[in-house]
Structures are given as C-alpha cells and as structure tokens.
Specification:
The chain has 347 residues and is an alpha+beta fold. It has two domains: 8-152 and 327-346, Aminopeptidase; 160-304, Aminopeptidase (3-Layer(aba) Sandwich). 35% of the residues lie in helices and 29% in strands. Strands 1, 2, 3, 4, 5, 6, 7, 8, 9, 10, 11, 12 and 13 form a 13-stranded mixed β-sheet that branches. A hairpin with a 2-residue loop joins strand 9 and strand 10. The mean pLDDT is 92.
C-alpha cells in the first residue's frame, strides 16, 4: 500500500521475510527515543525463532529503503477468537510499535489502515503492556470503539541529576539496609560482585535460572525462568545483548559460590531491573539488596536518569524510593458485520 506522502507499507508473514529487514529494523530502533530492549530486533527475532508464532503479522512502513515504522504483530487463537496482538509476550515487560518521529502521523495511520484491510483475518485486537508514551495510546484508529485501561505498574527510581553515590540517590533507610547487609557478609569473609563476560556467560545464566527458581519456590510457584522455552530464549538472546553492551548479568559470590544473581538491561538513559534470584539459605545477608545496590551504583556512574524495576508491585521495590509508572491495555471487539464493512472501507 502506498500513501500520498510517498510512504509504502507491506506485511511480513514469515520468519525469512522478517530476518531480511533486521538491519533496517536496528536503524529504526536507534532513532526512536522511547524504544526499549523489548523492541530491539535482537530481542524479538530470537522470540520469533524460539516461540514460533503460527501467524506473524509484521507491518513495515517504508520511505524508499528506509524503515520508518514497524508494528511487530501476530494473530493467535484464544477462546475460539482470533486475537491480534503485539509480539514479545511472556518475556517482555513493554510491548510497542516503533515509529520514526519524522514520520509519526503518516506511519501510524498506515499501520491502522493496514490492520483494517486485514479485518477478515482477526476478531479481537488486544494490545497489552503498552508504555504510557506509546503512540498507540495517543492516536488509536477511529474505526473502532476502544477500551483503554491501566494494566499494571512499573516502579521507577528517578536518579537525581549529578548524583554519584547511593547516599544522594536512595532513601536513608534503604541506604542503611545496604550497608548493614554488606557489613554482615564482610564479617564472615565477604563476598564479591562480578559481571558476566562472554567467557563465563553460560555459568551466570545457569546461576540466575537456578536462583530465580529458588526464590519463587518459597512461594510455591515455578517462576518465569522455569519453562524450557523461556530458558532457551535467554540462552540465545543473552550473547547478542552482551555484545551490544546492553546485558548486565550480576553475580554475588562468596567462596566461589553464587548466592545471588541479577539480570539487568542498561539501555540509553535507563537501567532496567529485569529479574533476580538468591539462595534462601543466605537470606540473613540480604543478598538481593546488596546486588541491587551494585546496579544502582553502576547506573549512577554511567549517568543513567532512572532505574526501571519493570512490572510488578513487590514491596521491596518501593524501599528504593520508586514511584509507579503505569502500563496500559488497548482492546476492541467487533462483530462479523463490522469486519466486512471495515474491509470494504479500507479496500
């Protein structure tokens, strides 16, 4: 489809077609100020390869050979309905489109028009985990009656300008918690916080998967890292993210043994706290607090503006002085008659 502005759109429906646009996708990602790791081509191409969606529906908007808009969608069946949704579910905290700011209005309009043209192929639009800055929330298509609702919240720690140490970045009470935890561990010989490298990455991944499982087992739950496909996803994507300088996989070791591990993503001006785990036998030494303190210290040294603890309102996140930033869900349902009419209008 070609617009009067000179932009063109096409739909990619197989992995081979998607793989061929990865370099252009990477360039588009770089020019989008609000893009996160979860929209990176490295992240979503691995997601496609591992989880193998049956009906990829990736809308690409082009200005010649330049990719200026991308909607990484798919269609799947749920309760007898064909659902149009964003790719990345299950392992991503933010789902969204990528839109070049220079072509924002035109690209977004073409994405909605392409979706309308395919109205006979889906019954329900369900766009989840949208960040508050998503273009999809600012300008949903006029064709349908939308429901926009708050879905979750991501606690975020805003780092003071020019702050260099924990003292000026976190509440005094949490600062004491970090110091006390480090002192308790020092009294029995201390521990060492290390970062994964390309050489030891497999061992660090093993540690985070095991320790994350231990953490959730205390609540009688398996934890997100327990599923073999999720483990495979992270084993594949981690080397790419490490090479890009995005992945920060921390380990707290004592006598050569992991007692805590933390999976973080340092991206643009934000450090994302993805997940962590610790050995419950070492709970008295607050290993999770210690390793999170190291993440905040690194973020301060590198001039990050905030630390995003991602979705989930666990109480320990608020001890760091965070505030909630909501995520949203955008949905619409339509009848068969409406689908037929919209297909006619968009044709």
């Amino acid at each position: 489809m070609k617009a009067q502005s000179g932009l063109e759109s096409n739909v990619l429906r197989d992995y081979g077609s998607i793989e061929r646009i990865l370099p252009a996708w990477a360039e588009l990602w770089e020019c989008c100020g609000n893009s996160t790791t979860f929209q990176r081509p490295e992240w979503l191409s691995v997601w496609i390869a591992v989880f193998q969606p049956q009906q990829p529906f990736v809308i690409a908007i082009w200005r010649g050979s330049q990719l200026v808009g991308l909607a990484p969608l798919l269609i799947y069946e749920r309760d007898g309905q064909r659902v149009l949704a964003l790719m990345g579910g299950g392992v991503s905290d933010y789902l969204d489109v990528l839109i070049d700011p220079s072509f924002a209005d035109e690209s977004l309009s073409m994405i909605w028009e392409q979706i309308a043209r395919e109205a006979s192929n889906w019954d329900l639009i369900d766009l989840t985990d949208l960040p508050c800055a998503s273009a999809l929330l600012r300008r949903p298509a006029r064709f349908w009656p939308w429901v926009i609702e708050m879905q979750d919240a991501c606690p975020v720690l805003t780092l003071p300008a020019n702050a260099k140490t924990l003292t000026s970045a976190v509440p005094n009470r949490q600062l004491r918690n970090v110091r006390n935890a480090r002192n308790r561990l020092a009294k029995i010989g201390g521990g060492e916080i290390k970062l994964a490298s390309s050489e030891n990455l497999p061992a660090f991944l093993d540690a985070i998967m095991q320790l994350h499982g231990c953490r959730w087992a205390q609540d009688g739950l398996p934890g997100m890292m327990s599923h073999p496909a999720v483990q495979e996803f992270h084993r594949r994507v981690a080397p790419w993210l490490l090479k890009k300088g995005v992945l920060r996989l921390y380990g707290l070791l004592t006598e050569g043994r992991f007692i805590a591990a933390l999976y973080a993503l340092f991206e643009k001006e934000v450090a994302y706290y993805y997940l962590q785990g610790f050995d419950p036998q070492w709970k008295w030494f607050s290993p999770g607090t210690q390793i999170l303190g190291a993440v905040v210290e690194d973020a301060l040294r590198e001039g990050k503006r905030k630390i995003d603890f991602l979705r989930g309102r666990e109480s320990y996140k608020y001890q760091w002085g965070t505030h909630d930033e909501p995520t949203f869900r955008l949905t619409t349902r339509r009848s068969v008659q409406e689908q037929t009419e919209l297909s006619r209008i968009a044709a």
